[in-house]
Write a structure and sequence with these properties.
Blueprint (H helix, E strand, L loop, with lengths): L1 E2 L6 E2 L12 H16 E5 L6 E5 H5 L8 H9 L8 H11 L24 H13 L13 E5 L16 E5 H18 L1
Antiparallel strand pairs: 1-2, 3-4, 5-6
Length: 191
């Protein structure tokens, strides 16, 4: 005979068990209480100075500053809508000066301008021309939504053909993805 550590009831343990609990329910309740006691910490609310218990895991996530949702709402409401003053803005602006210019910028490519992307006027003109020729539909499946422009000859390997209208196709997102997967497979077969 053994005595359950949770409910103090006498019970006959199974052959392979350690004989500490009379049921799975008591085992779960007992372990949960111990785990919760070890994992909680007493903190002071940042709003009302009231003490409250919080799990250590929540503190690691950055939670546990306030005892309740109402205290949290009161404190965060005080900071919403605040704007930097002119002095602070000028200090921040001076700190950024020269930090992301030229070769210090993360996108810098040895002084070359790629001319690619929505910022390039050449690229935008090329894209609009391809749209007109393809009549606003996917060249593979005929879809009319979620359209992308696709370079027939690779952007990287054919820099002189980048902005040629005949080097463009209009494809929907799914056909565009499939086309690039197909090209990658061909590239791997050649290697």
């Amino acid at each position: 005979m053994a005595i359950c550590l949770q409910c103090n009831k006498k019970f006959e343990p199974y052959r392979n068990s350690k004989g500490k609990f009379c049921s799975y329910k008591c085992n779960g309740l007992y372990g949960g209480v111990i785990r919760r006691k070890k994992a909680t910490v007493i903190k002071v609310c940042g709003c009302c100075d009231k003490e409250f218990k919080i799990m250590k895991g929540k503190i690691r996530k950055g939670e546990g500053k306030y005892c309740s949702y109402s205290c949290s709402a009161k404190m965060t409401k005080n900071f919403t809508g605040m704007k930097h003053g002119d002095e602070t803005k000028s200090i921040m602006s001076k700190a950024r000066l020269g930090k992301y210019e030229g070769d210090k910028h993360p996108n810098y490519k040895n002084g070359e301008k790629s001319g690619r992307g929505s910022g390039s006027s050449k690229f935008r003109q090329w894209k609009e021309s391809v749209l007109k020729i393809c009549r606003d539909e996917c060249a593979h499946c005929g879809a009319k939504d979620r359209l992308d422009t696709h370079h027939i000859l690779s952007w990287k390997e054919h820099p002189n053909e980048r902005h040629e209208v005949k080097n463009g196709l209009m494809l929907c997102k799914s056909c565009h993805t499939k086309e690039h997967h197909r090209l990658r497979k061909e590239e791997l077969c050649v290697l």
